[in-house]
Design a protein that fits this description.
alpha/beta; Rossmann fold; Alpha-Beta Plaits; 6-stranded mixed beta sheet; 10 helices; 13 strands; about 25% strand; elongated
């Protein structure tokens, strides 16, 4: 497993050190080691059943580990005081809303659960309704709200008591891309206000919205890094995308592979004239490779640009690499 230096600054909100929760039969999470500094968004990404929700439940004290250590605010979550719990907001996978209460009434109910007075709730609600863009829907019953609106109302409820740390477990599941983007806008605004967020998701592309990304598979952490760091891990460096005459593609690949700065080359799927050349620094090597191709092969590629793979490809490459090392 690879970690980025961003997770090691000595002021972490939460720490897992070889933490495991073994349900038996191969189910659970195992040997999780990572930390999260304040003021960042950590996206925990992986397929359904990989252990994301179990990890969140360990961190908020719903479960205790069967091995290793879990610390949040430098404390064992199982020993949280009411004051500690008040520093955390939690959006579970499944709705906590009451279908026959209005949006406002649901927030009043949630605020009461957090121990807030009626005056405190009333003071916070207008600002939160505006933040999640539900001001016009505040009198509508929860069952009359769309799925995306319900998720945003749950976000407002989790923020009502002004927590420092927010856990959001698959908050964008089943929501269309436009609404997902809106929720991520909310999350980034919270981060910019100094909040710390751990967000789980099955949508690999949402890695781009995070400061750090933890990739999980079969209850284990494959890697944790920045989005740019994940791309570097997946490509073992950086890529350059070339397009040349298809009849000369193999010749160009063989020539590039003979150059000391090129680690390897690949054909681009479904692109007969496309070639990927992998180097340590694409920005530094791009012009060098163009000049070398022109000088030694008389070839000027139609396209020559740094290659930024989509996160679906990054995910697949990293998972395949983890499988090869098992």
């Amino acid at each position: 497993m690879t970690t980025t230096d961003l997770t090691q600054n000595g002021h972490d909100f939460l720490v897992m050190q070889e933490a495991s929760l073994d349900f038996g039969g191969g189910a659970g999470v195992f040997d999780l080691t990572f930390s999260l500094p304040p003021g960042v968004i950590l996206g925990m990404i992986g397929p359904s059943g990989c252990g994301k929700t179990t990890t969140v439940r360990l961190l908020n004290g719903i479960y205790g580990p069967t091995g290793g250590e879990v610390r949040v605010f430098e404390k064992d979550p199982l020993k949280f005081t009411n004051g500690d719990k008040a520093r955390i907001g939690y959006i579970p996978q499944h709705s906590l809303l009451y279908a026959n209460l209005s949006a406002e009434e649901n927030l009043h109910f949630l605020g009461g659960m957090y121990g807030m007075s009626s005056r405190e709730r009333k003071a916070r609600m207008p600002e939160l309704m505006e933040f999640v863009e539900l001001t016009e829907a505040r009198k509508r019953l929860a069952r009359q709200l769309s799925g995306g609106m319900q998720r945003r109302l749950m976000l407002a409820g989790a923020l009502l008591h002004e927590p420092d740390l927010l856990f959001a477990d698959e908050p964008t599941a089943g929501i269309d891309p436009i609404l997902r983007a809106r929720i991520w806008d909310n999350f980034r605004e919270l981060r910019d206000q100094g909040k710390t967020l751990l967000v789980t998701t099955q949508y690999v592309g949402e890695a781009a919205y995070c400061d750090l990304v933890a990739l999980m598979r079969r209850g284990r952490l494959v890697t944790i890094d920045t989005p740019a760091g994940l791309r570097r891990q997946a490509l073992d460096g950086e890529g350059i995308h070339f397009q040349v005459d298809g009849s000369r593609a193999l010749e160009v690949m063989q020539f590039l592979e003979g150059l000391p700065q090129v680690k390897r080359t690949e054909r681009v799927p479904a692109e007969p004239d496309g070639i990927l050349a992998f180097v340590e620094d694409a920005g530094e090597e791009l012009q060098v490779l163009l000049a070398t191709l022109k000088e030694h092969k008389g070839i000027t590629p139609r396209v020559a640009e740094p290659y930024l793979p989509p996160f679906d490809e990054v995910f697949v490459r990293l998972i395949h690499r983890s499988e090869e090392t098992e």
